[in-house]
Amino acid sequence: MSRPDRQTFGLRASCGRIRVLARQALREALHLRLGLLVGMAGLGLCGGAAGLRQYSFGQAELKFMADFGGAVTGLTSMVLAALVPAQLFFRDLESRTMDVLLTRTVRRWEYLAGKFAGTACLLAGYIGILSLLLTMILVRQGRQLGEVQPVLFPIFFAGALLWMKCTLVAAMTLLVCSYAGSALFAGCTGLMLALVGQLRSLPSGGALTVLQVWPNLTLFNPEKLLTGPATMVGPWLLGLAFYWAAYLLLLGALASYGLKHREF
After folding, report:
1. Cβ burial, residue 172 (10 Å; 0-12/13-18/19+)
2. At residue 136, what are phi and psi to the nearest 5 degrees?
3. pTM of the prediction?
4. How many CB atoms sit inside 10 A of residue 31's CB?
5. Which of 73, 122, 197, 199 has the fewest CB atoms within 10 Å of its CB?
6. What is the pLDDT of residues 1-28, one digit of tens each?
7. CA–CA separation, 248 vs 215, rounded Å?
8. Contact at 8 Å (CB) between 70 and 42?
9. What are the residue boundaries of the structural domains of the chain, listed by start?
C-alpha cells in the first residue's frame, strides 16, 4: 500500500499533474478572446512606437520610444495577469471541471499551481514578444540616427522584472478567486491589489499602515537596474528574487487555504 501512495502523492507525481494542468491552462488562455484582444492591443500600441519617429524629440528620442513601449508592455501585461487567471478559474468552476479534478487525485494547491504556471508561461511569451518587437524598433531607429545606445541591452532585464511583477499580480488574483463569486470581481480586485502594490512606496500612516505587509511592486521597476552601480546590481537582483519567491509562496498558501474551505 505504501508504494502506490508514494506514486500517487509523491513529489514527482505532483509535478506531473501540475505540468499537465499548466499545459491545459496555457492552451485555454491562448483561446481566450479577452486575452487575444489585450494582446493585439499591446502589439499594436508597442508597434506604434515606430510611428513616433516622424516627431522630433531631440537626443532623447530613443529613450522616449523605449519608455513608451515599456509603459504599454507593462500596462497590458498587468491587465492580462489579472484577467486571465480569473477567466480560467471561473471557466472551470462553471463547467464543473474543477469538481471533477478535485474529487480525483489532484490537490487544491496542485490545481492552483497549474493555473499559475500556465498564466506565467503566457505572460513570459507575451512580454518576450513585445520586448523583442521594441528592441527591433529601437535598433532600426538607432541606426537611422547613427547612435545605438546601451539602452537596448537592459530591455530584456526590464522584461524579466516585469514578468516577476506580473506573476505576483496573477498570484494575487488567484487568491481572490479562491473566495470570489465571479470572474469580473476577481479580475477587478486583482487590478486593485496591483494598484495597492504600486502605491506601497508612498508614505502611509494610520489605518493604511496595514498595507505595508502587501508586496511592494515598485521594487520591480527597472530604474535601479539602469542607474545603480554595476557592483550592486547582482546582490539587488538576488534579494529581489528571494522577495518574489517568498511572496509567491505566501500568496499560494493563502489561496490554497481559501480554496480548501470553499464550498462547491
Report:
1. buried
2. -60, -40
3. 0.84
4. 8
5. 199
6. 334 444 556 778 888 889 999 999 988 8
7. 10
8. no
9. 2-260
